[in-house]
Amino acid sequence: MKVQTEKAGVSFAAISKEKFEQRDAADVILGLLQEQKTLCVQSVEKKEVNQEPPLLYDLTTLQKEANSKHGFSADKTLSIAQKLYEAKLTTYPRTGSRYIPSDVLAEIYILISGLWDNTVFGKQALALSNSNLNLRSVDDKKITDHHAIIITENSASGLSGDDKTIYEMIAGRMLEAFSKKCVKDATTIRLACGDTIFETKGSVIKQAGWRAVFDDREENEDEVEKLPTVIEGETLSVLQSEVLEKQTKPKSIHTESSLLGTMEDSGIGTPATRAAIIETLFARDYVRREKKSLLPTDKGLSVYEIVKDKRIADVALTGSWENTLSQIEAGEMDADTFRQANEIYTRQITAELLNVSIAISGENECACPKCKTGKMIFYPKVAKCSETNCGLIVFRNKSEKQLSDKQITDLLTTGKTPVIKGFKSKGGKSFDASLAFDADYKIVFDFPEKKEKK
Fold first, then answer.
1. What is the pLDDT of residues 95-118, one digit of tens each?
2. Mean pLDDT for the chain?
């Protein structure tokens, strides 16, 4: 339930604390609001909120933010970060730490002073002094092989395009990390109509601190910048009221940014290898990009169905390997013990996969029309060439239509199927068409010619 009210010419909205499962219950409150046309200020809570600056970048965090803010792939961000490192403009990129050791802290102010003349960061760099740098990103105990990514003392004035974008992300984050905290006055007002409580929140920045580097404003759809001054017991008029109908949302589709975060939380890969893992999914046609979203292909779903319950797909085990390797490196575990365990595991998953029963439809056997040497093998969800270097695959599901063995055979032997009825467009409309191979052996629709009316 949403209600609009005002005080001293300042209009603001408040949302009911209670969520109504039934529309009838919400309509009762709506009727009461429209009848009384007033709200009573139940409480006003004010407090100072301190927001510490973000930590410095490790590679995964840099990749995640470059994807969400600029649409860069993880592989592209790594490539640029490596290029900047080789040009001696930034430090080693393949790091999993977001901290620097205390001995590097002595160099930070020198690096910051190198940005005094920077057109983007000059003002904020000048505002920092060596005596009051924020030390949140300084911790000797949280350094792995390499410390967090920071800039070097070398000038980056010649950079342009995407290289400049990543450099400025790193330079800006360094300024943010060593800036003062952001201080806000936060206000929460609770309003009452009968037994129903409505709440609104607002905040005013007293000290921008690290948020001034990129003039960063926190996005919060349920919070306004400034609320009027009200006192407990005061009565406010209702300008407007309405019932908000919302549905439970399914989990969001992964972007590269969210996938990198999930991989990190699950212990899959390292900062240096996660981008390559994602690129392998693209290269094998398991996943495709659709704008910023990552969607599984039919091939990827087929592989998933085969391995989802197998040991080879055990995410927890994969993540534990990374921890075990770190223990071996630190001398806390014997490498030979790990090797022997892996030999046993390899034999187990190999036997398990060899025993997977993949039914082959019928006794169909067609020559591959693409490589001319392989045989097309029919599986429940695909027909594929036996030659691994060929790569010809025909998926049975096409626009919500399951292709029969005969239809696939016609396509493979003649290059075209008869007209198939019942395909569905993205808009849900039904249409009829033949399927054919183009010059690159991609499957395309071939629409029948419409007969002219006499």
1. 999 999 999 999 999 999 999 999
2. 88
User: Which domains does the chain carry?
Assistant: 2-52+181-242 (2.70.20.10), 59-177 (1.10.290.10), 256-354 (1.10.460.10), 366-446 (no CATH)
Joined together, the tokens standing for residue 235 give 């009565």
pLDDT in tens, 128-144: 988 889 999 999 999 97
Tally of CB atoms within 10 A around 188: 16
Each residue's pLDDT tens digit, 204-217 = 899 999 999 998 76
